[in-house]
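Researcher: Re-running this chain for the archive, since the previous output was lost when a drive failed. Same request as before.
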Amino acid sequence: MRAAVVGGVAYHVGKRGAQASQQEAQQNEQIQELQQQQAQAAPAPAAAPAAASAAGGESIADQLTKLKGLLDSGVLTQDEFSAAKQKALQGG
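Model: Regenerated structure tokens:
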């Protein structure tokens, strides 16, 4: 009787291990498929448009970031920020 119990437990442990291995293999296959789909769907990196530079070589994005920081810290008012932003966007 004891041998039957031990054999039954071993059978179930082996079966669970096989199921886990099969599930892991399926997950790995799904991951590979998704990676292939992403690689096919990802467009080639486009050349970044040349950022307009102002005096000092700062890009417009850099200027706007600094202006926003000044606005947030209270150095600039909303009107001053808006005027400076328009000036930066116009390349002046």
